[in-house]
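Q: what sequence does this backbone want?
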């Protein structure tokens, strides 16, 4: 039972890089928001990124048709208007291994609160909970219409390794924790047309997968943004063990701040 629940919790971390397929295959959908909406055309300023991922059941799976497919790799591409500066925030003082099997408070103590880059880490109240940084894992149990919902608190830390994120996922209700490492690719390393990419590898899952994930990332100058281009592109791609690869595109717009006219003009 413990391995069963650990696997369910592990699935949550794929949320920072989960994707969707529009129209033909509505397994997943991604929504992104970069704020403030009104920004300078040239200068980067501290900003906030909000991401919501919704994942539907994999109804064609004969074994677990009432839970989402199990991902093993996810990549999220962020708009060119945004950039990450991992040097702007303190690094976690602990290693990935040291964070395993810890509570959220223990992880904060080990890493140091100054290394936290996510906002609003809360216990979700249900699968439709869409505030803060959290997730809801669904596990298909024997029998039609029977599933197990696991609420999970997600806390993102600036990793101790270069350009990494430690994604600490804690499910107090089942006393389980899982930590995954996400790799940030910025600048020229990012895919063409995007400003950066988050690449997360997910280990094989025994059971359970994420149904909903919301996260808000903001910490000093860790995320910065401008509005050089008014149209902003988001994209996410996920690879699964039991489903074909999915890719979803999402678009937002920003407003350029007008230059203030000098007095007497």
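A:
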């Amino acid at each position: 039972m413990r391995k069963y629940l650990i696997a369910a919790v592990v699935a949550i971390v794929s949320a920072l890089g989960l994707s969707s397929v529009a129209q033909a295959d509505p397994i997943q959908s991604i929504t992104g928001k970069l704020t403030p909406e009104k920004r300078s055309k040239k200068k980067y300023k501290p900003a906030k990124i909000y991401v919501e991922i919704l994942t539907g059941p994999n109804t064609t799976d004969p074994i677990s048709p009432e839970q989402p497919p199990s991902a093993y790799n996810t990549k999220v591409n962020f708009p060119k208007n945004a950039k990450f500066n991992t040097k702007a925030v303190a690094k976690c003082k602990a290693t990935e291994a040291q964070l395993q099997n810890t509570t959220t408070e223990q992880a904060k103590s080990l890493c140091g609160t100054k290394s936290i880059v996510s906002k609003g880490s809360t216990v979700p109240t249900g699968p439709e909970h869409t505030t803060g940084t959290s997730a809801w894992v669904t596990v298909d149990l024997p029998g039609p219409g029977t599933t197990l919902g696991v609420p999970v608190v997600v806390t993102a830390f600036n990793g101790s390794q270069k350009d990494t994120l430690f994604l600490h996922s804690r499910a107090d209700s089942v006393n389980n924790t899982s930590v995954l490492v996400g790799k940030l690719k910025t600048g020229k390393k990012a895919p063409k047309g995007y400003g950066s990419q988050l690449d997360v590898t997910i280990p094989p899952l025994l059971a359970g997968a994420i149904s909903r994930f919301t996260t808000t990332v903001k910490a000093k100058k860790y995320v910065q943004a401008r509005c050089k281009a008014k149209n902003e592109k988001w994209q996410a791609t996920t690879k699964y063990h039991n489903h074909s690869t999915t890719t979803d595109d999402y678009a937002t717009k920003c407003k350029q701040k007008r230059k203030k006219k000098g007095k007497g003009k």
